Every structure is written in structure tokens, then in C-alpha cells.
Amino acid sequence: xxxxxxxxxxxxxxxxxxxxxxxxxxxxxxxxxxxxxxxxxxxxxxxxxxxxxxxxxxxxxxxxxxxxxxxxxxxxxxxxxxxxxxxxxxxxxxxxxxxxxxxxxxxxxxxxxxxxxxxxxxxxxxxxxxxxxxxxxxxxxxxxxxxxxxxxxxxxxxxxxxxxxxxxxxxxxxxxxxxxxxxxxxxxxxxxxxxxxxxxxxxxxxxxxxxxxxxxxxxxxxxxxxxxxxxxxxxxxxxxxxxxxxxxxxxxxxxxxxxxxxxxxxxxxxxxxxxxxxxxxxxxxxxxxxxxxxxxxxxxxxxxxxxxxxxxxxxxxxxxxxxxxxxxxxxxxxxxxxxxxxxxxxxxxxxxxxxxxxxxxxxxxxxxxxxxxxxxxxxxxxxxxxxxxxxxxxxxxxxxxxxxxxxxxxxxxxxxxxxxxxxxxxxxxxxxxxxxxxxxxxxxxxxxxxxxxxxxxxxxxxxxxxxxxxxxxxxxxxxxxxxxxx
Length: 486
Fold this sequence. Notes:
By secondary structure, the protein is an all-alpha fold. The chain is 81% helix and 0% strand.
């Protein structure tokens, strides 16, 4: 239980930077969607190019984040040497990538349909190269349990980003989507300079035999990661090419803006991952590791389902963070949120093959899931537009989650509390169904009242089942005092 408290504390710190940071970034969504009307396609450009950044970051870091945790915690390995080897390798690959993009900027920008705006492409590429390089120092902060510095730098990055966006889009009344990319370049450069103390550990040098061992471990993670990222962004990358209508960028902008609302689930999953990954690798070999993973799975699902109900219960209020002409896409929100929950479950399930060095299983699962997603996009997007994107993502994550669970239970069985998980999933589904009909049939005040009651009912079940009042520190003291007095 003490271990879970440590995990909860670190998740809260990482979650603060992630959730508060993403929330502040949400302020940019209404800014962009107001300054760039849906019909302009400007937000579609931002959605499209940012989809490539996630994939490129995975390719340029090639699994070195997880690999660093694995080797830094291995007996006989020098953690500083592991860090500097990873840092030099990722830095060299990132520099080569930037040089190649500048050398072939013409054909690359034309292939991406931005031949008239090559600056969008090279600014994005330079930013990605810097972000890939700084990813390793950020991993080092997590390994050293410097959660506060990690969170502080993430929030500083967001604060600078928001300030510069407000200056351009509000102060100067700008409307060019390209300035969003310039601003990100400035932010990435500033934050990288703030990591100079961690970057200085590069002095421990480069170890070629160590790199070979690290790459042998990481290459399946790269395939796993690429497939995982494609599960998140392939629809946005492919959409302008397979949705042949003239308003493809417009429709992509609507989908991208509404999907942003669903990203609260990605925040929770990311915060959980930042805390959970170094925590689990640090406990390798502990007898209670399986029990801890099973408990963590249940609590992760409990709180993500609660977040799902909160968003869906108050969607009529939350939708105002995007421009009114983007509201047609709100129907994708519950689908994308459900997909993000399954991604979090898949991440939790992934440790059986990461801890046993059988990372090729992750590559297999993610590749199959990615294939499902891409095929569904190619087949159905031309007819159904962005709704097909949402359902294809749902199907992809469902595939990866199911395969990982079934194979994992064969090779490394863990007794997950399936009964409790089923109870919470069933309650959330019933509450969501009721919310759907209350929103359709009742006036705003009526639906908000009903939805609030449903959320409170779910929370009450959580408290009764898994957070009995006597076990909560402050309330528990009150219970004990009453018992003594009686």
C-alpha cells in the first residue's frame, strides 16, 4: 500500500504539470478556432502537421526512453554511462534528420501539400529535432525522481507558448497558422537551455558495446512505439490524402478541435505513465510487483472512467472551449475518450513483456492494431469522413489491448480484479447512456442536474467499495475519535 501511495504522489505531481499544462494549452484551442474559422482550414493545417511531429519524435528517440530505464536499473550497468550514450546517439540522429530536411525541403514540402509554405515544414522539423534531443534529459529527471523540476519546466514551456500566442494572435490580430510553429520552436529552444545541468552528464562518454545492447532491446520498442503513435495520429496524417472532398482541411480541423476535448484522458494516461514506468522498473524482482500492477490497473480504470463521465456530463459547457462552427464534430468525443482509456490499459498490460525483455510482443500487438486502424481509415473515411477516424482509433486500441491481455495471461499471468473492473465499467456505461438521453431530451439545466446526480452516484460507489471513509486520513481520525467517545 505504501508503494501505491508513492506512485499516487508522483502521478499527482506529473499529473499537475500534464493536466494543468494541457488545460492551459486548451486556451489556445478557442484562440485558434476563433482566429481561424473552420472554413479557412487553418486549424486543419495545424492538426495535420502536428500529427507528424508525434511520429517523428518516436522515430528520432527510437525507444531510448524506456531503454534508459531498463539499463539504468540493471545490475552491472553504469547509469551515467547509459544516459550519455543515449544522449549522444539521439542527438546525432536528430541533427542528421534536421540537415536532411533542409537539404530536401522542396520535395518534402510539396509531398505534404505545403509547397507554397515550405517554412511550415522546416520549422516543424527543427522543433522536432530539438524536442527529441531534450527528451533524454527529461527521462533523466524522471529516473532521479525530480518530479518537481520536470513539472516546472513543462509548465514554463506552456506559459511561454501561451504568452507568445496571445501576443501574435490577439495583440497583433494574426491569423497565419504558421506562427504557431515558430512559437513552438522558441519554446523548445528555451526549455532545452534550462536542462543544461542534465545535458552536462554527456561528459560520461559514448559506449559502443553498450549501445549495441541497448539497440537490441529498443528496436521492438521502436516498432511498438511507431505503431502506437500511428494509432493516435495516422487518421490525421492520412485524412487530407484519402478524403477527396475539397474541404478536407476544413473537416480535419473540425475533427482535430473536437478531439482536443477528449484529450483529458491522454493527460491522465500520460501522468500515470510518467510516474508508473520508473516506478515499476525500479521494483523489478519484488515479490509484490504483480499485485501492485493489478491494483494499479483497477485504480487507473476507476479514475479514467470518472473523468470520462465528468467530460460527457458537462459536454454542453465544455464545448465552448472551441469555436461554435466546430461543434458538428462533438459526436467523436466519447469515442476518442474510450479509445484513450483502452490505450492506458494497454500501457499497463505492457509490462509483462518489457520486464522479461520480450519487447517484440509489443511490436507484434501494436503492428496488428495499427494495420486495423489504417485499413479502416482507408476503407471508410472516403464515405464517412472523420467519424470513421474516431471508430478506427477505437478498433485499433481495442485490438492491441485484447491481444496484450490474452498473450500476457499465458506467459505472465496476473490476477487482475476483473469483477471490480466489470462493476465500474458497467456503472460508467449505464451512466453514460443516461447522460446521452438526458442531454437530448431535457433542457440544459435539467440535463446538468441529472448528469451531476449520475456522477455523484458513481463517486459514491467508489467511496463505498474502495475508499471507505475510516481509511481516509482526516475523515478517519474523526471516525476514530467518535468511536473512542462512544
